[in-house]
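Task card 7
Instruction: Convert sequence to structure tokens.
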Amino acid sequence: MKVVIVGAGSVGSSIARELLSHKHEILLIDLKPEVIGRSGLRGAHWMVGDACELSTLQGAKVEEADVVVSATGDDKVNLVVSLLAKTEFGVGRTVGRVNNPKNDWMFNDSWGVDVAVNTPQLMTALVEEAVEIGDLVRLLTLQTGVASLVEFTVPHDSHVIGSTVGDIEWPDDSTLVAILRDHAPITPSRDDVIDGGDELFFVTTIAAEDELRALLSPDAAESVAQPEEGGTPGGQVPSGANTASAGGDHGGAVSGGAENADAAPGNGDAAPADAGRPGTAQDSRQARQSSLEDDGFDG
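Output:
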């Protein structure tokens, strides 16, 4: 696999070192020629130049690359390089480094980014995964924000303990992909019984995360533990229900009042604002970076 890495600092050099150990072909592009000597990378190809210029990318034959990684410390550069690689050279996969978490929303397909690597967000997820019990923790975002890998550690007083995987009605867009129990991974089946301390891993859409969180929360204990059997929860009588006359039987169930009738699909999930993709790549780096500023980029 041929990989072009823009930015040969500590991050870019570390990525290159790992990929070289896996026998991939690596080309690093950086503005500073002195990084070549101090990188200590053997077997990598080098180019000194501004990767925001089309001429530099043409000289690097970026169109032949399988992956382009933008790993500089400047989010503007990483966005511009990803956009040029995707739109001008048709690179199949682009990876962009996010330095400022406030700019994470711009690292999507509108700017040619297939995968955004947000280091602060990853570290936060790892910390939460280590200490959070009884709450859903997002570990990784997949497909440029369409889906995610989430983890749930089952508390020892959880209502799902003792239920089999097949007994629980998981949200439509969520799939239980693994169970980690006693430091051993388990491929889940319908007959597996959930136990306290289990770590459940799901691949889910971003929109379905809230449904999954609600299902696993303590508030969902009654609805998961048993279905409704006549009457309504808490002894409440639905509005519009016909009650018996004095001395009559009050135990009859009332039908026709679906609890979720007023639940509209997609509530609370507003579509992200379009970052404003430029129509064509300009030859001037300054013009591209000014367009980023016009789009609300946080430097």
